[in-house]
UniProtKB/TrEMBL annotation:
Coiled coil: none annotated. It is found in: Membrane. The keyword Acetylation does not apply. Pfam families: AA_permease_2 (PF13520). Keywords: Membrane, Transmembrane, Transmembrane helix. This is Putrescine transporter PotE. It comes from the Bacteria. The chain crosses the membrane at residues 21-43, 55-82, 94-115, 144-164, 185-204, 216-237, 249-271, 277-294. It is a multi-pass membrane protein. It comes from Methylobacterium trifolii.
Length: 306
């Protein structure tokens, strides 16, 4: 993925679009195959009286953190707004269409898992899709679904190799200490930012398990989302004069709902996984310290100018 992204231009674009379409086709094929079968699940889709209690339980809240990963790319289009020709038109469309499509596919996939597989078989298991695949396609189903997952990860990684370096480039443009990360090649590719992300991702995956990496970044991701939405409300109050080309539908109700649910998840996450949450908080504090240091240096440089 790093090599493709370094190539830049039409190659990276065609690669991303092609594999994304292939991923969608494979997911839809799995959904159709699962729903077309007789079903072997033991879960009723009808609501029950015990559902409200489960929704407000600690286990359900912590599980929402993993559900958030299915939607974690919904806001990523905002990171590459500088690469969009008409962001005022294309950005809202990308957010709504992308989030709506992912939501529909996620719900249908979850329904297939529950429809085809007994809960006892998937309880406490990470590879739910592989287990469900054996019920849908027989003994070879695990390998088929494993292939589907591998192919599906290709466009996901490709998107992150585009979006992640864009954030790093913005940091390099704002923070003088990281200026090297903002440099681009003659073709406009941020080589240093891409290589940095590849090195960091490789070190994380080689030194710890994938699940451990997810647990490590959960608190930080949720905190950043919480603070970002809180910042929208703060700016509405303190800077009502700022131009706002994009509207927040349902404001202030929708931001307040998001903040309430996210805070609920953060509290339960800190209680159930204190070490991982503390590590994520420390990492954020290190970033804030770096930002404060560079901002202080920038102010000193300005005062030196006659």
């Amino acid at each position: 993925m790093t090599a493709v992204r370094l190539g830049g231009g039409n190659l990276a674009s065609r690669f991303q679009v092609g594999f994304t379409l292939l991923k969608l086709v494979l997911i839809l094929a799995f959904i159709v195959a699962g729903l077309a079968g007789n079903g072997g699940g033991s879960v009723s889709f009808a609501p029950s009286a015990s559902d409200p209690a489960r929704i407000f339980s600690a286990g359900f809240v912590v599980s929402l953190v993993f559900v958030m990963y299915a939607y974690s790319g919904w806001n990523a289009a905002t990171y590459i707004v500088g690469d969009l020709a008409d962001p005022a038109r294309s950005l809202p469309r990308a957010l709504f269409v992308g989030t709506g499509l992912v939501s529909a596919l996620y719900v249908m996939l979850t329904a297939v898992f529950l429809y085809t597989t007994p809960v006892a078989e998937v309880a406490g298991q990470v590879e739910v899709a592989l287990i469900s695949g054996r019920h849908v396609f027989g003994d070879a189903g695990g390998r088929i679904v494993g292939l589907l997952i591998c192919v599906g990860l290709i466009p996901t990684i490709g998107a992150m190799m585009w979006i992640g370096p864009s954030v790093t480039v913005a940091m390099g443009e704002d923070v003088p200490l990281l200026r090297q990360l903002a440099r681009r090649s003659a073709t406009g590719v941020p080589v240093a930012a891409i290589l940095l992300q590849a090195v960091v991702a490789s070190l994380l995956l080689l030194t710890r398990s994938f699940e451990a990496v997810l647990e490590f970044i959960q608190f930080g991701l949720l905190s950043c989302a919480f603070l970002t939405v809180l910042g929208v409300i703060k700016l509405r109050i303190t800077r009502p004069d700022l131009p706002r080309p994009f509207r927040a539908w349902g404001y202030p109700i929708t931001p307040l709902i998001f903040l309430t649910v996210t805070l609920f998840m953060l509290v339960h996450l800190a209680v159930s996984r204190p070490l991982q949450s503390l590590a994520g908080a420390v990492l954020m504090l290190v970033g804030l310290g770096l930002y404060a240091l560079t901002a202080s240096n920038a102010r000193r440089e300005v005062t030196k100018v006659p």
